[in-house]
From TrEMBL:
Origin organism lineage: Bacteria, Pseudomonadati, Spirochaetota, Spirochaetia, Spirochaetales
Source organism superkingdom: Bacteria
Keyword terms of this UniProt record: DNA-binding
Residues annotated as domain HTH tetR-type: 6-66
The name this protein goes by in its record: Transcriptional regulator, TetR family
DNA-binding span(s): 29-48
Residues forming coiled coils: none
Entry keyword GTP-binding: no
Molecular function terms, GO-annotated: DNA binding
Organism of derivation: Sediminispirochaeta smaragdinae (strain DSM 11293 / JCM 15392 / SEBR 4228) (Spirochaeta smaragdinae)
């Protein structure tokens, strides 16, 4: 029985990230991934049974990180200090370590179980925004409208996705996320 080596697994993952990032899941080929990893294609299948299994290995860790963060928000962490002290550093770290995987997840998974991930993230953010507005005891009926919550969540998450897509460096991302957060929270406080 062949012993699977961590170094080969990492080469496969790195090649898959690059392939999925450039070509998307649908157009990526296991043969091309193997060539970029400088291994025979059969060896890729020793580590991953299919291209879908390889996609899971690439994006599932990022998917879990983002959904955990958003579920924690939706569970009642409505404090702006929590956002600035916990979530911004988390987002910066995500961009520094897993940016390409995040782009793959939000833009390049058509036809997979992840193709609705972006909508799921928006819906989790919507729940958080709805909880935040409810905690402020807002009486304006339009502000309580579900479509309004959806628009705010879409605006916030799409803005973060744009930062992810156009990432320059950690300092730039930190400034952009801080500006986005100030805009987001100032607008919500104004309600």
């Amino acid at each position: 029985m062949q012993v699977l080596k961590e170094e080969i697994r990492m080469r496969i993952l790195h090649a898959a990230v690059e392939s999925f990032y450039v070509d998307g899941f649908a157009k990526s080929k296991m043969k091309t991934i193997a060539e970029h990893a400088t291994i025979p294609v059969g060896l890729v299948y020793s580590y991953y049974k299919s291209k879908k299994d390889l996609l899971d290995a690439v994006v599932m860790p990022v998917y879990r990180k983002i959904t955990t963060l958003l579920r924690n928000e939706s569970a009642g962490n409505n404090d702006t200090h929590y956002f600035f002290e916990t979530e911004i550093p988390f987002l910066i770290d995500l961009l520094e370590t897993d940016r390409k995987q995040a782009v793959i997840l939000i833009d390049k998974c058509a036809g997979t179980k992840y193709e609705a991930a972006k909508d799921e993230f928006i819906n989790l953010a919507k729940t958080h925004i709805k909880n935040y507005i409810t905690s402020k005891k807002v009486t304006d009926m339009e502000v309580k409208d579900d479509l309004f919550h959806h628009m705010l969540a879409t605006n916030l998450m799409e803005s973060f996705f744009e930062i992810t897509r156009h990432y320059k460096d950690a300092e730039w991302a930190k400034k952009m996320i801080a500006l986005l957060a100030q805009y987001h929270f100032y607008g919500l406080e104004g309600l």
